[in-house]
Structure formats: structure tokens, C-alpha cells
């Protein structure tokens, strides 16, 4: 419609220009042809002036001869009139001829003057000497020679004038023809402009009708679009709420529960399931499902899903003609089609989202949902990894001193509320420097790792094993009595004694540990006090000969408990 309106505007502008052209072309064409006519008339006028000039000269010659023959003075009247006409015509011609003709005209002037002198002399001779003398002068032929010269020059100018007159006639004919051609062309252009205006006018009317029909259709689409906008706003709101909830979770189980709840609202007509890579990264396992997702295989390998293999969404409409993911071949959702969307974060696959019912699923929404879920899972994994890095000792895999301080305070509060006891044990490797000096620091690190593994095997699930610093370790055993604590410490000491550690094909020898034990609440009620008491007991075990457990006793000298 915009192009048609523009075409109409351009058409009317052209029509106005053509109207002006219709007025200007005849006007300037007539002036152009008239200029050629004026030039032709001028050339014709020059020709007549030349004939009059020649006639004036002939009249002068005739008057001179008549006077010589008759002696009558009245025969001289044509002579003197001819002299006046010749002078007047010469002046007119000198102002009208071109340069080349003007040169010829100027060469004519001396002949005219000489002829006049000749006429005057002949007349005086007749008056003074009589008819015989004047006749002899005339019969000498000089007058004829002068007239022939004058006639030759006038004829050359006359020929040039006739040539110019002929050219001007041809110019008139050419200009008249060209003017007619231009008028015909303008008429054709007028017809084209009128046709153009008709075309755009009828096109505008047609587009107006089409526009009204489109407006009606657009109104219907707008109504449908408003419904889609409301649905999209609801989806955006749900995605925003889900993102806010996922941003606040700290556990994967809670994360998967939130994903399932919101997926059920976002895809109410599409049962679905989400699979994530197992920590081993060799299989995927189901972590969340919604609606009436059918029971099926909960584990599958990554190469059994086309979406993961191709790194992009895989949509199946007709299961009989398209590629089917092997992990869904025996699933009852295939008859309605399905959609698999890979869960990607930083270019790395995390899992796959599967939705049933391809015709009714919103691919854009599914991919946006998968992007949000991937980001949440990746962030949670990163936070979990950073948390572990901040509280796990890199060498031994045990919790570090920072985690020990936080956990010990928490366990002391719990023990205080529950009126229960708690054991704090500090231990280190006897003569640890010997391993570093004899076998190198890598051998010493190997001893610490084996000791950490043995501690993990010997402690309860509720106990906390930490690396306290260097070759020193700590154990927190909540809800345990003194006797049980001593028994567990002794079991750990005996197990360490049985360790056989080899480095570089060489046995490192016996490994012994010394332990210091303090109990809450009798040995202290604060974390610092209990750790100091356990450290004092450890020092006493070292001083008493190493490879033993020493139990701290408040107010008394630490009493070593040696079990063999």
C-alpha cells in the first residue's frame, strides 16, 4: 500500500511536469522554427538588396549613355537616383552580410567609386567636347569592364546568399520535423503517464479492499495473538520464578524437585523426563519426570540419544520415517512423537530433556527451559565443587581445618542441647620426618594418604575425620562415651600399624601414630579448650614413647592409656 501511494504521488508529479512540458514544447518549438524562418527571410532580403544594388548600378549606366547620346539633362536623373540607392543599399548590406561576404562587398566599393568617376568624366566630356569625344571614350570599353567586374562580385555574393537561403529552408524543414517528433513523443508520454495514473489508481483501490480484508484478518489474529501473549507472559513468569528458585537451592534433590514442579506447569500437555550424566560420566540417569511419563529404562549410554550425539535438538514427528533415539525405542510415547533437547553448559553436555507429543510442544520454550535448567545445574555443580574445594584437603581427601572449626562448634551446640558427650581426638604420624628424609616428600605424602584412607574406613558415618595440619589429623566423634572412644582410637592405631606402604618398589616400613583424646563436657565446653586438651594429651603420648593413646584428665596430669 505504501509503494502504491508513493507511485500515485510520483505519477501526479510526472503528470504536472508533463502538463508544463505540453505548454513549453509548442512554445519553444514555434520560437525555434520561427528563428529559422527569420533567418531565411533575412537571406531572401539580402538577395533582393543585391538585385536592387545591381539594378541601381545598371540605372546609372543607362542614364549616362542616354545623356551622352542625347545631351539632355533629364537623362541624368536615373543616374543620380541610382547613386543614392547604391549608397543606401551598400550601407545596409555591410551591416547584414557575414564576414566572408563582407570581404567581397568591400572589394566592390572601389569599383563602384571608379565607375562613378568614369560616369562623371564621360558626362563632362559630352558637355565640354561634344558627342564625338564622349562616344570615343565610351567605345573604349572601360565602362563595360567596370560593370562586368561589379556584376561578377555581386553574383558571388548573390550565390552565397542563395546557398544560405537554401540551407535555411532545410533548417526550417528539419526544425519543423523535429518539433513534430517532440510533440508526438510528448503525446506518447502523456498517454503513458495517464496509463500509469490509471494503473496506480486502480491498484490503490484494489489494495484498499485488500487492506480492509487484511485488517479484519489482523483483528482476528490480534485476538489470537493476545491469547498467545498472555500464555507467553505466563511462561516467562514461570521461567523467572523457576530461575529464582533454582538460584537459591543448595542440594541437587531440591533442584530436581523444583525442575519437575515447574516443568509440569510449563508443559501441561507434554509428559517429560530429564536425564543427567552420572558422576562416572559414562551413563545418563533419570533425575526428574512429570505428568504421566511412562516407566522405562532409567539408565542409558550417551550414544543412545541423537540429541546428545548431534549437540542439538532432535524432534520426531513420524516415528515410522524418522530417526528414533535407541533409549526410547520401546517407549510408548513414540506414537505421538517426541522431542529431545540437550542440556549444555559452557559447550559441555550435562544431560538431555525429553518431551512427549511433538505437534503440541513449543520448541522455543523447550530450548529456553533446557537452557535455564542447564545453567542452574551447572551453577549448583560449580558451587558444590567450590564448597568441596574450600573444605576438603587436596592431598588426603579429608575435610580441612576450616571445616573442622565450623563443624566442631556446631556439634558442641548439638551435644549441649542433647546433653550428650563428644570426643575430640588429635593424632599424628610418629617420626614422620624419617619418611621425607629417607624416601622423599612424595613418599611422605603417600603415607598421609594411606593414613587418611584408613581413618575413613575406621570411623562411623557420623564421625568427622579432618587433616589438622602437616602430619597431624583430628577426629570428632559425637554421641560417644569415653570407653567407646578409646576402643575406636585403639582400633585405628592397630589398623595403621598393619599398613604396608610401598614407594618406588620399596617398602617404607612400619607406620605408627600417637593420639590425644579429650571429652566434652568434662575436658572443656568450648572448641578451643577441647582442642587444647586433645593437643596436650597428644603431646603427653609423644613424650611417653609414641605409638599410643593418651586420654586428657582435667585438673590432673594427662594420663596415657597404652593398649598393646
Description:
The protein has helices at 2-70, 77-96, 99-129, 131-139, 142-248, 252-266, 306-310, 363-391, 401-418, 432-439, 441-458, 482-497, 527-543, and strands at 272-277, 284-290, 299-300, 314-316, 338-345, 348-356, 422-429, 464-469, 472-478, 502-503, 506-507, 513-520, 549-551, 559-561. It has 564 residues and is α+β, with helices and mostly antiparallel strands. It has three domains: 24-181, de novo design (two linked rop proteins) (Up-down Bundle), CATH 1.20.1440.210; 249-391, GAF domain (Beta-Lactamase, 2-Layer Sandwich); 401-561, Alpha-Beta Plaits, CATH 3.30.70.270. Strand 1 and strand 2 form a beta hairpin. Helix 1 packs antiparallel against helix 5 and helix 5 crosses helix 6 (252-266).
Amino acid at each position: 500500500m505504501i509503494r502504491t501511494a508513493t507511485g500515485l504521488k510520483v505519477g501526479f508529479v510526472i503528470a504536472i511536469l508533463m502538463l508544463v512540458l505540453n505548454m513549453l514544447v509548442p512554445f519553444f518549438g514555434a520560437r525555434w522554427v520561427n528563428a529559422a524562418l527569420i533567418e531565411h527571410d533575412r537571406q531572401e532580403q539580402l538577395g533582393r538588396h543585391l538585385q536592387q544594388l545591381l539594378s541601381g548600378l545598371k540605372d546609372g549606366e543607362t542614364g549616362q549613355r542616354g545623356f551622352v547620346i542625347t545631351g539632355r539633362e533629364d537623362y541624368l536623373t536615373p543616374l543620380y537616383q541610382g547613386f543614392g540607392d547604391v549608397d543606401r543599399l551598400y550601407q545596409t548590406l555591410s551591416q547584414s552580410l557575414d564576414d566572408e561576404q563582407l570581404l567581397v562587398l568591400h572589394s566592390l566599393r572601389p569599383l563602384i567609386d571608379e565607375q562613378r568617376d568614369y560616369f562623371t568624366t564621360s558626362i563632362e566630356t559630352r558637355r565640354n567636347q561634344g558627342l564625338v569625344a564622349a562616344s570615343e571614350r565610351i567605345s573604349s570599353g572601360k565602362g563595360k569592364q567596370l560593370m562586368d567586374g561589379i556584376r561578377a562580385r555581386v553574383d558571388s555574393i548573390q550565390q552565397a546568399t542563395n546557398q544560405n537561403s537554401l540551407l535555411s529552408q532545410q533548417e526550417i524543414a528539419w526544425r519543423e520535423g523535429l518539433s513534430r517528433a517532440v510533440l508526438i513523443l510528448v503525446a506518447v508520454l502523456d498517454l503513458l503517464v495517464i496509463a500509469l495514473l490509471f494503473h496506480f489508481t486502480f491498484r490503490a483501490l484494489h489494495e484498499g479492499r485488500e487492506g480492509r480484508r487484511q485488517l479484519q484478518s489482523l483483528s482476528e489474529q490480534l485476538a489470537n495473538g493476545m491469547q498467545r501473549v498472555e500464555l507467553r507472559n505466563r511462561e516467562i513468569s514461570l521461567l523467572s520464578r523457576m530461575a529464582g528458585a533454582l538460584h537459591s537451592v543448595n542440594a541437587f534433590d531440591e533442584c530436581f524437585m523444583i525442575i519437575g514442579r515447574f516443568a509440569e506447569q510449563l508443559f501441561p500437555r507434554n509428559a517429560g523426563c530429564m536425564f543427567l550424566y552420572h558422576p562416572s560420566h559414562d551413563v545418563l540417569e533419570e533425575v526428574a519426570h512429570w505428568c504421566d511419563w511412562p516407566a522405562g529404562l532409567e539408565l542409558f549410554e550417551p550414544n543412545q540419544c541423537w540429541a546428545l550425539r548431534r549437540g542439538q535438538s532432535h524432534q520426531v514427528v513420524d516415528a515410522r520415517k524418522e530417526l528414533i533415539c535407541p533409549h526410547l525405542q520401546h517407549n510408548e510415547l513414540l506414537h505421538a512423537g517426541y522431542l529431545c533437547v540437550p542440556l549444555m553448559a559452557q559447550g559441555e553436555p550435562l544431560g538431555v530433556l525429553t518431551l512427549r507429543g511433538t505437534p503440541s510442544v513449543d520448541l522455543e520454550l523447550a530450548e529456553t527451559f533446557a537452557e535455564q535448567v542447564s545453567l542452574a545445574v551447572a551453577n549448583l555443580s560449580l558451587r558444590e565443587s567450590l564448597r568441596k574445594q574450600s573444605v576438603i584437603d587436596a592431598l588426603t581427601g579429608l575435610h580441612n581445618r576450616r571445616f573442622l572449626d565450623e563443624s566442631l562448634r556446631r556439634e558442641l551446640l548439638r551435644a549441649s542441647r542433647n546433653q550428650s558427650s563428644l570426643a575430640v581426638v588429635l593424632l599424628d604420624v610418629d617420626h614422620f620426618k624419617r619418611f621425607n628424609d629417607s624416601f622423599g616428600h612424595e613418599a611422605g605424602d603417600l603415607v598421609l594418604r594411606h593414613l587418611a584412607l584408613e581413618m575413613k574406613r575406621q570411623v562411623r558415618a557420623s564421625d568427622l575425620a579432618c587433616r589438622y595440619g602437616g602430619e597431624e589429623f583430628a577426629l570428632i566423634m559425637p554421641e560417644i562415651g569415653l570407653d567407646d572412644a578409646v576402643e575406636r582410637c585403639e582400633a585405628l592405631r592397630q589398623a595403621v600399624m598393619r599398613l604396608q606402604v610401598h614407594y618406588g618398589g620399596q617398602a617404607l616400613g612400619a607406620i605408627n601414630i600417637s593420639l590425644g583424646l579429650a571429652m566434652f563436657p568434662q575436658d572443656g565446653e568450648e572448641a578451643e579448650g577441647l582442642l587444647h586438651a586433645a593437643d596436650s594429651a597428644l603431646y603427653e603420648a609423644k613424650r611417653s614413647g609414641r605409638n599410643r593413646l593418651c586420654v586428657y584428665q582435667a585438673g590432673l596430669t594427662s594420663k596415657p592409656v597404652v593398649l598393646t
